[in-house]
Amino acid sequence: MKTSVISPIARRKPRRRLPLAGVIGCAIFAFWLLMAVAGPYLAPDDAGGVTGDDVFAPISALHPLGTDYLGRDMLSRILHGAPYTIGLALAAVLLASVGGTALAMCAAAAGGWFDAIVSRIVDTMLSIPHKLLALIIVAGFGTSVPLLIVTAGIGYMPGAYRIARALAVNVQAMDYVQAARARGEGMAYITCREMLPNMIRPVLADFGLRFLFIVLLLSGLSFLGLGIQPPHADWGSLVRENIIGLSEGAPAVVMPAIAIATLTIAVNMAIDGLVGRKRRGREG
């Protein structure tokens, strides 16, 4: 009697493909990440180089995105501003998410008075609006790149802490965590080997959302003149300094706004696609 042998490849579950919207979002986000690294080297002109007397020039072969209020090439300005917009947001979201998640896991694992004190401090910080906190810090200590990163990171760390703590409290009640405690494992082993791997997916989804919020926060500060200072510029300050050309329909106002919009929408599409893919995989 013959028995059919099923190969390991045939027994595997079919891989869930990323939705088209998620693929588009990941592609656009990867493009902007590349521009954040290589954009200044690909720019046709210097960030502050004035190419002529034609201010608010329309789109042309010489200036694919027009010129700004001083006659500077907008394509070069946007490419030079990409590292500030994307790089600062990535650094700030790493500070917020990594710091908030690590503190949350320690608080959930330790419990008792440490968890209570940290949670009350976080509740107090959550009561302060992010933009108001950023305005207070910038007005009191001035504007610099490290200060902007710390301001945005501290402002969004309490939200990351709250989400990570809720996940950690649920995970630490699982049997495998209790078994690790019974074996006498230390807090570092329990948090890094038992809790974190089972929290990573929702934490990554929250990471992407906080990146969006921080991009908008930093762009808003730059639009108010409290972000990146001249001669450097991020996309928010490019919108602010060219706002007088809005009545003329100048591309110098529209193009930085489109860059901000494409970045935020792309990240949102990528997060929705990745989270939806994992959800469908669990349901399947």
From TrEMBL:
- On whether ATP-binding is a keyword of this UniProt record, the answer is no
The record's listing under InterPro entries reads: BP-dependent_transpt_permease, MetI-like, MetI-like_sf
Q: According to its UniProt record, where is this protein located?
A: Cell membrane
What's in the keyword line of the UniProt record?
Cell membrane, Membrane, Transmembrane, Transmembrane helix, Transport
Q: What is an example of a Pfam family matching this protein?
A: BPD_transp_1
ABC transmembrane type-1 domain: residues covered:
82-271
Membrane topology per record: Multi-pass membrane protein
Q: What is its main location?
A: membrane
Q: Does the keyword Transmembrane apply?
A: yes
Q: Which PROSITE patterns match?
A: ABC_TM1
TM region positions: 20-43, 83-112, 132-156, 207-229, 249-271
The entry sums up its family as follows: Belongs to the binding-protein-dependent transport system permease family.
UniProt-recorded name of the protein: ABC transporter permease
- Per the UniProt record, the source organism is Massilia pinisoli
What taxonomic classification does the UniProt entry list for its organism?
Bacteria, Pseudomonadati, Pseudomonadota, Betaproteobacteria, Burkholderiales
